[in-house]
Amino acid sequence: MTENGSIFIADKNVKTRDLVSAFLTYQGYNIAVSDDSTPFFDTIQKKNVDIVIADLAYLKVIAADFKERVLDRNPLVVLIGYGEVSDSDLKQPARENVFTLQKPLNLDELESLVMRAREYQSMKMYDCSTGGSVQNQLLSSTMIGSSAPMQALFEMITKVAASNATVLIQGESGTGKELAARAIHQLSDRHGKNFVPVNCAAIPDDLLESELFGHVKGSFTGAYANRAGRFEMADKGTLFLDEIGDMKANLQVKLLRVLQNREFEPVGASKSQKVDVRIVAATNKNLEELVVSRDFREDLYYRLSVIPITIPPLRERREDIPVLIHTFLSRFNADKRNAVKGFSRDSLGILCNYEWPGNVRELENLVERLVILKGSGLIVPEDLPEKYLSGKVYCFTPVEALVPQADTMLPEAGICLNSAVEEFENNLIMQALSRSGGNKKEAALLLNLKRTTLIEKLKKKNMAFSGE
Ligand SMILES: Nc1ncnc2c1ncn2[C@@H]1O[C@H](COP(=O)(O)OP(=O)(O)OP(=O)(O)O)[C@@H](O)[C@H]1O
Ligand SMILES: [Mg+2]
User: Fold this and answer.
1) How far apart are the C-alpha atoms of 14 and 370, rounded to whole Å?
2) Which ligand neighbours the alpha carbon of 182 most closely?
3) Rounded distance, CA 387 to CA 368, Å?
4) What integer pLDDT is reported at residue 368 of this predicted model?
5) pLDDT score for 178
6) Ligand 1 atom closest to Cα of 181?
7) pLDDT digit string, tens, across residues 201-240
8) DSSP 8-state assignment for residue 244
9) Who contacts 394 (Cβ-Cβ below 8 Å, separation ≥6)?
């Protein structure tokens, strides 16, 4: 398997199949294509495929049990031909691991769907892996962070996932609220069912009600057929109400009713419908302030914040910056088939001191941009955009400054020995790697480790780091 994973492509139209195959091969995926002599499922199993891409026409002729067998194993990207009407359960992505794409194909869209499918599959793989702390493996594979606030957050997410309680995630933009919501779903008993996100700020007010609760045919102009809402799609799963602070007053009342009674009425329906959903809501606004200014209902606020979680901004957990940088670097190097070796000590120092108003998203975007523009070699301060260079005088090397000292006093309240030791180890490894400019052999020498032992440690810690 290549680093990006392997994909099975089945399309009755050979031209489309070959185009998709060539494009994804170029993107670094290992491709297997359909061939009429081997049964569909056998190929998927034998080639240890991660993602399946198939056109609707192809899916319609294979055995009816494909859905259970394939979907239980792999995310599926369905290509839908022009004017072709899909089976309702494929077109309306009732399952979180079904993605649909309309032909004629837009390759950018295809690329981003495949990335989403890949993300889904990697979460699932961790979920299925056996042994010890599945939760920790899953969390640390998706949410990076060894700082104390992030370790506390992981612990909270793990505990919360086991319950059905409503969760309210607050934090500045780009801190990882959606990532945390997805982790809660993946770690819960509901992970086999849908995780359904709704961005309350992005859907026009007059459409949001029907989007959430569905509607019956004829209930308003344009309602040509009954349509299920997001609540129904999330039945037995998790509904993620994003940007909840932007929800208008009339809908706040309706949401409150669902939270109280676990039932709702589709627009235009005369009967209410029962539903079993776990609600996770998120906002980057201060809901308490909105309650005071009467822009958000107090009763709804209390219903939502049964378990409040706050994700701290990146500037309050700077220890996480190096490992985030190296994880993103490794991901974008692989995605873009580039070979940026790493960040020089100085450039890493500058980035660790920066304020990061856009938090992890801003950091992720910067690393992507640098990988594209630099292409190879080591990122040095001159490569950084101006705004990162202006401002403070950098008088210390933050990576060093953040290493816990061997003579750390035991705090009054005690300490989690394992995470303290882990943090100590991670910081020393990151220092060795940044001093060696990403060269693992040299870094291993600095740590008095074998190169293979260092690589093994990096893998375990999910501290992907490019370079030799
Ligand atoms: N701890 C983390 N580890 C790895 N990636 C992260 C982490 N936190 C955030 N990200 C990445 O940063 C980006 C932003 O995260 P996410 O969308 O979850 O933030 P958000 O808080 O929902 O932002 P917004 O308020 O703007 O919607 C995503 O690409 C996500 O994968
Ligand atoms: Mg978000």
Assistant:
1) 37
2) 1
3) 17
4) 95
5) 95
6) 18
7) 998 888 899 999 998 888 888 778 888 899 999 999 999 9
8) G
9) 349, 350, 353
Q: What per-residue confidence (pLDDT) applies to 455?
A: 86
Cβ density class 85-118: b for 16+ within 10 Å, e for less: eeeeebbebbbbbbbbbebeeeeeebeebbeebb
Encoded amino acid at 308, one letter: P
- Per the CB < 8 A criterion, the answer to whether 167 and 160 are in contact is yes
pLDDT in tens, 251-283: 999 999 999 889 999 998 889 999 999 999 999
pLDDT in the model for residue 120 = 64
Does residue 359 line the site of ligand 1, with CB under 6 A?
A: no
Query: Which of 118, 170, 178, 310 is the pocket-test mutation for ligand 1 (most atoms within 8 Å of CB)?
Result: 178
Q: Considering every ligand atom shown, identify the ligand nearest to the alpha carbon of residue 180 and give its number.
A: 1
Q: Indicate if ligand 1 lies below 6 Å from the C-beta of 145.
A: yes
The backbone torsions φ and ψ at residue 423, rounded to the nearest 5 degrees and listed phi first, read -65, -40
Q: Which residues of the chain have pLDDT under 70?
A: 1-4, 36-38, 62-68, 85-96, 116, 119-141, 391-416, 419, 437, 462-468
- Backbone conformation region of residue 346, classed left if phi is above 0, alpha if psi is from -120 to 50, else beta: alpha
Q: Is 179 in the pocket of ligand 1 (CB under 6 A)?
A: yes
Rounded to whole angstroms, the Cα distance separating 395 from 253 reads 53
Q: Cα(159)–Cα(454) distance, rounded to whole angstroms?
A: 32
* Ligand 1 atom closest to the CA of 363, numbered from 1: 12
Q: Note the pLDDT of residue 63.
A: 62
- Set out the domains of the chain in order of their start, with CATH numbers: 6-128 (3.40.50.2300), 134-312 (3.40.50.300), 316-461 (1.10.8.60)
In angstroms, the CA 103 to CA 91 distance is: 13
Q: 178 CA to middle of ligand 2, Å?
A: 5
Structure tokens at 462: 């999910």
Residue 188: strand, helix, or coil = coil
